[in-house]
Amino acid sequence: MNEEKREKTQCLIIGSGPAGYTAAIYAARADLKPMMYQGLQPGGQLTTTTEVENYPGYPDGTQGPQMMEDFKKQAERFETDIRWGLITEIDLSKRPFVAKADDGKTIEAETVIIATGASARWIGLPSEAEYNGYGVSACATCDGYFYRGKVVAVVGGGDTAAEEATYLAKLCKKVYLIHRRDELRASKAMQNRVFHTKNIEVLWNKVPKEITGEKEGFAKKVTGVTLTDTKTGEESRVDIDGLFVAIGHTPNSDLFKGQLNMNETGYVKTAPDSTATNIPGVFAAGDVQDHVYRQAITAAGTGCMAAIEAERFLSAQE
Ligand code: NAP
User: Fold this and answer.
1) 0.85 exceeded by pTM
2) Active site includes 91?
3) Nearest-CA neighbor of 309 among 288, 287, 279, 265?
């Protein structure tokens, strides 16, 4: 490889959600002159939501995409070198770590902060994409509040679906839990909570066929969901105001497979109370290493931790 074409950085940040931008702000203010590759979806999962009301500092709430724009501006203010593009290859076997980007650049990085996030799994229906952010959501903690006193459905049968259904049951008039089999995958404790919550009704052996709604100019809202019975093929319909898809998340960690320790579903393992991975100088923050909380604020918190740890790591090397 032509050495002259290589760029060097003290800190390469991969990914641009709340974890990546917060890491950038802290790393830049510690004078690490971080370089960020934003990834496939600049701004991350929050760019697919509408209102965000649970992030401290926005007393009147804000829009997800606007919030990520604010994060980006703050990172730029401290001169983070933010690049549009993807890291396509990375060699973490020795320092400096060597990454290749899809803009043809090769980067030598003294430290790497992985903030590539996770992607919610979607059912894959065209109507699901059409109403995404307008009644279809993959996060009850983020969007449940908008459905107070209304009727919603949760799709899935795992712990996330059970947890979201019980969370929503406290806010909503009625919650349908739509599951494709006749038993839940969720832990027994979570199942008990579902079965003992009066306003949750489980619709067994059902999968959504189409989400229906109303459109008025740019405004859209969900009004119902058509279901197919997985055993009989029969169709039915329930009227709902919102649909929460809770069929799992996939951490965006493929790039690091075989190099970083991960759990069985691909979440990067970090040391307790730390963002350190199994490779010294490589840190992971946000949803790529967190399948429990998955909130913007917790992602931002671990982004801050990663930058502080990267700075301390570099100081210790001197
Ligand atoms: P999960 O355990 O993989 O469950 C996904 C659920 O979605 C399953 O019930 C699955 O059905 C269903 N599903 C998958 N694809 C579908 C599709 N295309 N259409 C309809 N349904 C579909 O995912 P998760 O619930 O997000 O949990 C992930 C991990 O985090 C688990 O290890 C879980 O225990 C953990 N977790 C723990 C907690 C907690 O301890 N408080 C909370 C949340 C998550 P089948 O059952 O038929 O496969």
Assistant:
1) no
2) no
3) 279
Domain made up of 3-119+249-317: CATH architecture:
3-Layer(bba) Sandwich (3.50)
Angstrom CA distances, 136 to 128, 174, 199, 224, stand at: 7, 16, 20, 11
Residues whose CB falls within 8 Å of the CB of residue 74, separated by 6 or more in sequence, listed in order: 21, 25
**Residue nearest atom 23 of ligand 1, based on CA coordinates:** 248
Ligand 1: centre distance to CA 85 (Å): 31
- Cα four-point dihedral sign 72, 294, 310, 38: negative
> Out of 11, 103, 143, 172, which one is annotated catalytic?
143
Q: How far does residue 155's CA lie from ligand 1's centre (Å)?
A: 10
CATH architecture of 122-245: 3-Layer(bba) Sandwich (3.50)
Under the banding of pLDDT at 50, 70 and 90, the label for residue 228 is very high
Ligand 1 centroid to Cα of residue 156, in Å, is 6
pLDDT digits (tens, 9 = 90+) for 288-297: 999 989 899 9
For the stretch 94-110, pLDDT in tens is 999 999 999 999 999 99
**From 151-155, 185-189, 291-295, the region with the lowest mean pLDDT:** 291-295
Q: How far is the CA of 249 from the centre of ligand 1 (A)?
A: 8
262 pLDDT higher than 90: yes
Residue list, ligand 1 pocket, CB within 6 Å = 123, 155-161, 163, 180-181, 185, 207, 247-248, 291
Query: Which atom, in ligand 1's list, is nearest to the CA of 123?
Result: 18
| CATH 3.50.50.60 boundaries in the chain | 3-119+249-317, 122-245
Tokens 């969007």 sit on residue: 143
In the predicted structure, residue 2 carries a pLDDT above the cut 80: no
